[in-house]
Amino acid sequence: MLYSALIFGLLGSFHCVGMCGPIAFLLPVDRENPYKRAFQLVSYHLGRIFTYALIGVVFGIVGKTLNLFGIQQQLSITIGLVMIVTILIPTKLFNRYNFSKPIYKLVGKVKNALGVALKKKDHGTFFTLGFLNGLLPCGLVCMAVFGALASGGALQGGLYMALFGLGTVPLMTTAIYLGNFLNKTIKQRVVKVIPVIVVIVGLLFVLRGLGLGIPYVSPSKMVAVEKLSAKHSCH
C-alpha cells in the first residue's frame, strides 16, 4: 500500500500549494545564488519529510500495538471505511461535528513559531521552517496518517509518511520557484479528483483487510500474520 502514500503526496501537493503556499512564497531563499537556494530548499523539504516520518512512526507504533491484539484486518477495513465516509459526509455536517477544533490553539502556536523562523536566515532556518510546516494540520495529511496507522509498524509507518512527503516535493518546489503558477481552473479540477482518489484508496484498504487472496491488493497472508500476532500476544 506504499504507492497510495505517493498518490496522496502528489495529489495533496496541489492542496498544499493552496494551504502552505503563502509560507513557501515567503521563504527567505537566496534569489541570487542558485546553489545556495537549492541547498535551502532541500533543507526545507527534509524538515517537512522528517516531521511526516516522525508522525508516521508514532501512528505506526499505535497500529502495531492494535495488531498485537489480532485486529490487523479489522483495522484496515475500519480505516478504509473512515476514509470513504469522511469523503461522502456533506461538508456542512462534517464541520458541525468536527472534533479537531481543540487543536486550533496548538496550530496557532505553530504559526507563531513559523512567523519567528521566517525572520531568521541562519543555516538551520529552512529545516526548522519545514519541520514546523509539517505540523500544520491538513485533510490529506490525516488520510496519509490513516495509512501509517494501518501499515503495521513503526518503520512501515515512518516510510509511508516519508513517501507522502516526498510526493509533495515537486509541486511545492515549483511553487517556491515560480510562485502561484496554478490557475483557478486547474485547481478546481484537482480538488474534484482528490475525493475520488481518497475513496479508491479507502476501498483498497477495505479489500486489503478482507484478505481475499488477490496478490498485492488483498493478500490472504494477512490472515496468517494476524493469527501469529494474536498467538504472540498470548505468551
Task: Provide the gyration radius in Å.
Answer: 19 Å
Helix content: over 70%
Overall tally of structural domains: 1
Number of strands: 0
| Sheet with the most strands, sense and barrel status | none
The ordered string of helix (H) and strand (E) elements is HHHHHHHHHHH
Total count of helical runs of at least 4 residues: 11
Global mean pLDDT = 76
Distance between the termini: 30 Å
Oligomeric state of this protein: single chain
- Backbone shape: globular
Q: What percentage of amino acids are in beta strands?
A: under 5%
| Unreliably modeled segments | 223-235
Given helix and strand content, the structural type is: mainly alpha
Describe this structure as you would to a colleague.
The protein has 235 residues and is mainly alpha-helical. Helix content is 77%, strand content 0%. It has one domain. Helix 3 crosses helix 8. It starts with a helix and ends with a helix.
Features:
235 residues; mainly alpha; disordered C terminus; 77% helix; 0% strand
Provide a brief overview of the structure.
By secondary structure, this protein is mostly helical. It has eleven helices and no strands.
List the helices and strands and how they pair.
Elements: H1 2-19, H2 21-25, H3 34-67, H4 72-88, H5 91-96, H6 104-118, H7 125-133, H8 139-149, H9 154-178, H10 184-210, H11 221-233
